[in-house]
Amino acid sequence: MASPVKTLTTLAEEKTLESSFVRDEDERPKVAYNEFSDEIPVISIAGIDEVDGRRGEICNKIVEACENWGIFQIVDHGVDPKLVSKMTLLAKEFFAMPPEEKLRFDMSGGKKGGFIVSSHLQGESVRDWREMVTYFSYPIKERDYKRWPDTPKEWRAVTEEYSEKVMNLACKLLEVLSEAMGLERDALTKACVDMDQKVVINYYPKCPQPDLTLGLKRHTDPGTITLLLQDHVGGLQATNDNGKTWITVQPIQGAFVVNLGDHGHYLSNGRFKNADHQAVVNSNYSRLSIATFQNPAPNATVYPLKIREGEKPVLEEPITFAEMYRRKMSKDLELARMKKLAKEKQLQDIENAKKLETKPLKEILA
Ligand code: OGA
Ligand code: NI
């Protein structure tokens, strides 16, 4: 009999965690998935277009959050809650389908969009405890609907509408951030040349041993900004002291978590932080999140838009976004390689020490 196809939903039934998901101790969760913090500001953006009204106040709050964390949550954002709940419901239906159905959209081997377990990135040594579906929604002319899931039936129309509404909201936020940097309103969208959008739907099944693993390992998003929708379970964590302490972001129904990415960080010359974050899992509930990544075009130039007096540029020279991404990925791979080498050396040292212990003294001294 052919062995059943394994997705995470099948592995989640097992009593112990398969070893490919077990992380080194220093990478494991330090704070519980449901120990919520209120440190990340929740900002109502009602009235964001009223130039003589709330706009200034909203702008100040966003700037403060970007300087401290690179993360904030927005409510009263105008995206129809019905659309949001439809999107969430259909996504849940997708992940509840049997493995063969989901694997019809298998994106392994570098396909642009579809379904995959853990990650589409190459060279990951430990796997993430998640399943994901991703589709590339902008620029519209590059959409490849063959790589978009076609079940549940209404999903495609809903995802199209969702993409458009989130794109509009993201552009509004980029205007505020441009003004905050003392630039024209359209400075950031212009710097993106032709804005790219990618939607990633993350599904984190219940996990038998959540303390040993992560749903999504620590990272910063590469792009300009990310708008993340999360359900009520909780699991998104952030650090603003390089991993010494972590907080779990409080889930708020209908809110978007906005993360500043590397591109946004560089364009602000480092004034705005790129959100340093990860997702943890738990053994009580599965969790769903929908991340919409707003990225510049691959050939867009990455360089600070304004360098304030007394500041040094955070980049030596202007590079393209594609090059920025390439450097980020190769740095990550290099760090993983160094870590692996260090671990192997440590194991070898222990082995050698053991050998030494069991040798008779006269052999050691000889
Ligand atoms: C991401 C991400 C966090 C989450 O998809 O880049 O950071 O809570 N997701 O799912
Ligand atoms: Ni992220």
TrEMBL record:
Reaction it catalyzes: a (2S)-flavan-4-one + 2-oxoglutarate + O2 = a (2R,3R)-dihydroflavonol + succinate + CO2
Similarity annotation: Belongs to the iron/ascorbate-dependent oxidoreductase family.
Gene from which this protein is expressed: CtF3H
SUPFAM superfamilies assigned to the protein according to its UniProt record, in alphabetical order: Clavaminate synthase-like
Pathway: Secondary metabolite biosynthesis; flavonoid biosynthesis
Role noted for this protein: Catalyzes the 3-beta-hydroxylation of 2S-flavanones to 2R,3R-dihydroflavonols which are intermediates in the biosynthesis of flavonols, anthocyanidins, catechins and proanthocyanidins in plants.
Keywords: Dioxygenase, Flavonoid biosynthesis, Iron, Metal-binding, Oxidoreductase, Vitamin C
Fe2OG dioxygenase domain segment(s): 192-296
Superkingdom of origin organism: Eukaryota
UniProt xrefs under PANTHER family: OXOGLUTARATE/IRON-DEPENDENT DIOXYGENASE (PTHR47991)
Biological process according to GO: flavonoid biosynthetic process
Cofactor: L-ascorbate
Keyword Ligase part of the UniProt annotation: no
Family annotation (PROSITE patterns): FE2OG_OXY
Stretches that traverse the bilayer: none
The UniProt record lists the keyword Iron: yes
Name under which the protein is recorded: Naringenin,2-oxoglutarate 3-dioxygenase
GO MF, one example: flavanone 3-dioxygenase activity
